[in-house]
Structure formats: C-alpha cells, structure tokens
Amino acid sequence: MTTDLRCYGDDIQGLADLVPDFDLRSPMDVESWYPREWQAIADTLGFAQQLAAAPRAMPTTPDRITAMTLVGLMAFEHALRAGRLGIPESQARVQSAVIQAMTTAGLERGELWRAMVDPTTLATGACYAEGGRSLRAFYPDTAPGYFGDGWSGPPPRAESACGWQTPLVLHLGTFPWVYSSRLGDTGPGARWASSASQPALEGLHVVASLLEPATNLRQDARQVAAIYRHFATHTAPLVAALPSFQPGRAEAGRLYRRGRFLLAHQGSLHVAALDGPRGRLAASAYNYILRRFASFFAVRRAALRALATLPFEVQRRAATSADPCLRQQVEGVARAS
Amino acid sequence: MRRGIWMALGATAGIGGALLVSRRASAASSAAPGTTPETPPTIELAGLPRAADVSGDLVRNWGETPVDLRPLLMLTEETARIRGASRVLAVIAYRESRFVTTAQNGNAAGEQDERDDSRTAYTNNKDRNPPLRYGEQAAEFGSGGLFGALAPYFLWTGVPEIGKKAPLLAAPPTLVFQPRAAAFGAAVYMQRLLSQYRVDDLADIKAGWANPGLLGKGRGGETYLSVRKRFLEDAQTVGIDLADVDTIPAKLDASAWPGVPAVFAGLVGALPKELS
Fold it and tell me: pTM score, two decimals?
C-alpha cells in the first residue's frame, strides 16, 4: 500500500518533502533523522552547545525517539537556566499550569497544535498577580495574523479577573512562536522562564511530542494542514519577491530564497525579516515554522508507513481518530495486511 | 569607530619609519597606488561561524544579541584572546549597526559627514600608510559593517603591527560587509585600544571606538561622557549585564594577543589570491 498525504491536500506531500523522508522501522534512519531535527531546533533557539554536550543515550528509556526527546529537552532546560529570566515567577507558575491543562485537553481533542481554551474555566483563570493587580498570563491572540484570519471566538462564560474577553489560543506546534502575530526573531515562548518555573520547557515538549509517532497520530492533521495553508498563503508572495540564491553570485547581507527556505547571505537570519500586510516575520522564525509543519507531516507519513509495527494502543487510537484521512489510511493498512 | 582613529593609533604605535619604507616599496611596484584601478572582484569569505566552532558560552549574558551572531562574536573573543570581548562587541554592534552586517553610514544623501570623514581619513593618512588598491572607493565609502568601521581605517587594519603585510590593503571597502572581516577589524582595533591607551573600564572602550582622542585629551569632556552614557544604555537595551564578571571582566586585557596574522587566520582565513 502506498502511503501518501494527499488526503490532506495536494500541497502537503510536497511540504513533507522539505525534510528528508525516513523509515521508522529503520534504526539507522531514526538515528539520523531525529538528531538532525533537534539540531535544527537547537540552532534556531540557541541551545546547540547544550545539545552537543548532552549525553547521547538516556538510560531510563530503551526507546530511541523518547530518549532523543529527553536529551533535547534536557539541553533546552540547561540553556533556559543559564539564560535570562524573562518573566516573573507568578506568571511562570500560571503559564506552566495553563500549558499543562491545554496540552491535556488538546491531546484528547486532537488539537494540540493549536490549543484553545476559555481562560475562565481554568483554575488560575490564566491570570497572575503582580503589584496588587491581576494580569493576563498570555497575549490575547485573536487578531488576523500568519496562522489565522483573526477570530474573537466565543467570549469567556464567566467574568475574567484579569480582563480576558476572548479565548486563550496558543499555537504550541510552532512553539516558541505561539501567537499568530509577534513573529519576531525571538519567539515569545522562549522568554517563558523564571528562576523556579520553565513553562518554555513545556512548550518545547509539545513540539517534541508531535515528532513522536504516538502523539503525532493523535493530532488531527487537518488542523495542521489548515494552519499551514494559511501561513503559506500569506508568506508566499513575500518569499516569491526575494531573489533565488545562487552560490558565488550572492550579495552580502541580502535575504534570498533557497528552495522553500530563506537564507541571509553573510548576515543574520534573526535580523532579516519579511514584511507583509500581516506584520513583520523574522526570517529565522519563518524557516523554523515551515520546518515544524514539514517535520510534522514527515513523521505522519513515516508513522503511517510503520503503523503495523506500532503499539496496539497507538493503532487503536488511529483507527478511531476524528481525522478521516487517518482512518482511511489505517483501513488501507488493515486491508493490505 | 568614526573619527581620527588611525592617526592616533598609528602615532602611538610608533610605526612611522618602517611604514614609510614599506609604503615607498609598495608605491614603486604599484601602477596607481590609492586610485581605483578596476572593478573590485567578488569576494566570498566563509559564512558565519556556528556554535560548534567555539567553546565559549553562547547562552549566558547575551541579552537580545541575535543567536546566529553570537558564535562570530565569541570566535572573535577566543581568537583575539581578549576575555569578555564578545559581549562588549555585541553592545558596540548594536550601536553601530543594529546587528545588520551591511549597515553603512555614508550611502545616503544625508550622510555626507560620514563620507567627509572617510575622505579626510584617507587624505590625511595615505602618505604615511601602505597604499590601498581601492583607496578612492574607501575614501568615498563612509563607514559600515557590524562595528561601524570607517573604510580606510578598516582596510589599513594591522598596518601598525605588520606594515605592508597587513591583509586588507588590496581589498575593496565592501569587504567590511562580510562579518568575519568586520570582526577581524574590530578585534585588532580593540586590541590596539587596550594596549595603547588608558582604558579605565568597559565604557572607555566605546569612547575609544568613537574616537581614541576621547581617551586622551578628550577624556572627561562632553563627548566622552555622552558616548560612555550611551554605551551603558545600549548594554541595558540589549540586555547584557556589564557587571557580570563571570562573562565580562571589569577590565579587558589584551596581553595574550596572538598577533594580527593569527587573528586574521582564525577569523577570516585566506583572501582570494588576487587580493593577498
């Protein structure tokens, strides 16, 4: 049986091809694909040194993918602890609790990539106290942006102590760029750290878990495809306006497109940016976000191909998924076997 | 780094006699020293170094310094053997270029003063320095690159130490847009400031960057004080704690300087044959 992703749209197969294809049943493929992804994440988020210094194997788990996730997260945690503390402790504690709640609910609904919640239903109300005031722990991200056309959503059912008028929306699949706007060179989520709490770690954990077959298959890929398509629609004209990179003929400091990705020749990808009607988008953020979409579908394809070898519980969840494309693939696998 | 730098550094370095001999030797073999003989060739130096290329820390006390520029700044510190230089250079780069590698002061209509500065720098110093192959272009260039180097001084980088063997004499001023070359110029300049001038603290480095004269007769004056104040404000804006002695000593020390050729090799490597 041929495993393809066309059920999600003709463009999705090409998206997955932006990163190398791999076979989950091949230890060699797994050993090369995942470290490469972690390297790309670490390069952009600035913890490449910590990743290089991390142990190559985790004695607590025999599963290679889980082990690499733990290694990557440990490296990120070390970098967070060494870096600048970005937020007050009270905010960090609330953020951690909120992300955990949203992750649990998002996983159940198959909407982990873009998680949404009525903040007034949360124990903390997504509010934290500072200087005698109650403040929102996250940015209310409902204006038109690169991930969506803007949506105020149903208003909170209860009155918010810190003024929430909209649902709380976090694009955890592209953490630390968790909002549809504010796509600057440092993702807002990268600042989510205090001396005692690291909500940023929980954010990156979502990114990592979406690369694991079990969690990847629980995500409704139609949601990811729709957000990707929105992102692609609003960035394509900006990227198309850039010159194509030609080795030996490039101009220092200029931003180029190389394939679907961006390259700042002799310059900083974090400083270079696309400027469009939806706002400024750092070139580093663009590359990272595009790669997150591509990696998600590359793992989806690999997981579908290896479905029969995955644990029974993973297969069962896939067979009963709300995602019709996934159910269709599972049926195809069953027929073929 | 804009005004009066080379005169001050050159004089202090005591290079006069040797340099004069070399200049004459170079002039004799050059068809038109200091003129623009040809269209500059395209130079392609290695790209930005990566985290794996350095051993120094790239996370602690960097503030908002772009992640992909930190290895370059750290490589500069490690190659020049000036502990703490990377974060100080980050603050300087923020002021001079906002981290844009191709920043240029002098290419806009309203920047005649920068072009005047580079013209003056070239005119006043060309007779006592080795000739620049692209001298006229340097004179018209103004200043640029990550660290805001004035073009003629950038191309004369290393002359006080190694005379006509200085590596950029045949390079065009646009080379300053390549971050490794800009970092080489900055490393040499910082070393000269630290070894030739009275530098009391970190802010004095920025005063000397603006004009070495501020570390001498200008010390304590209005400009000296304002440059220092702005440097301290810039450090705060970028988020670099200048008092974090684990990453930045209270005073930088260039006594382990390995020499211009070693720093050039470590940061830039080799220029194309026609420019070397």
Answer: 0.92
